[in-house]
Structures are given as structure tokens and as C-alpha cells.
Amino acid sequence: MGTLQDSALWVNDIIPGGSEISEVSCAFPPRRLAQVASDIVEGKIDGRIVGWYHSHPGHGLFLSQTDMETHMQFYQFSPYALSFVGDPQSGEFGIWIYENGAGVIQLPSNYIHII
Ligand SMILES: [Zn+2]
């Protein structure tokens, strides 16, 4: 959850989404996403959906084809949608965005500020 302010996307909360998991992939369940969107409309949740997060324990930082498709589900809620991938084994993380003409690209680390 977050907001766009002063040309910056602020991410200030997370809502666990649950997931549909197999051994090598996970996907954000569309029904859960629809529920979160409904909760926002009904005022049960403050803010806007600005993206999603998940982890790749021990597998590194990348977006799989399923992750790309999930990213584009979030893109329909906001053109500033981001995908966050963390690898808890290495302690690394990456953020991806959709850029016109380039597709889904990893955001350079100098664009990310953790406050
Ligand atoms: Zn993934």
C-alpha cells in the first residue's frame, strides 16, 4: 500500500496476500487482490495498491514469467505498480516496474530509498 507524492512512490504498508504456491512458483491469487481492492473502496483499508512482494529463498533476484504476469495484474491498478522480490538467504532484494517501451525492468538501486 502506498501513495504517489512529489514524483516519488511511497510504500508505507503491506497486506499479506496469501499465495498459490507450487515448489517453484507462486502467484498472487486474483480473488485476494479483488478482495483488497473491494476493502479499499469500502474504506476498510487506507491507501492504494502500489504493487506486490514475494520471496525467492536461495534462488536470487528475478521475475519469472508468472511474476511478470502478476506484475501486469497490479499494473491495471496503478501505472506505478512495483514488484518486490527478496531473497532471505542472501539478504538481497530487487524492485521491478513497467516502463513504456522497455517493458518490466529492474529499478536501479539508486532509485530506491529506505527510510
Ligand atoms: Zn517470483
Report on the structure:
The two termini are 16 Å apart. The protein has one domain: 3-Layer(aba) Sandwich (Cytidine Deaminase, domain 2), CATH 3.40.140. With 115 residues, the chain is of the alpha+beta class. The mean pLDDT is 87. β7 and β8 form a beta hairpin. It has a 4-stranded mixed sheet with strand order 5-6-7-8, covered by helices on one side. It has a two-stranded antiparallel sheet with strand order 1-2. Strands 3-4 form a two-stranded antiparallel ribbon. It is built from 2 helices and 8 strands; from the N terminus they run ββββαβαβββ.
List its traits:
single chain, 115 residues, alpha+beta, Cytidine Deaminase, domain 2, four-stranded mixed beta sheet, two-stranded antiparallel ribbon, 2 helices, 20% helix, globular, binds zinc ion
What's the topology here?
Blueprint: E1 2-5, E2 8-11, E3 20-21, E4 26-27, H1 30-41, E5 51-55, H2 65-75, E6 82-87, E7 92-99, E8 103-106
The structure holds zinc ion.
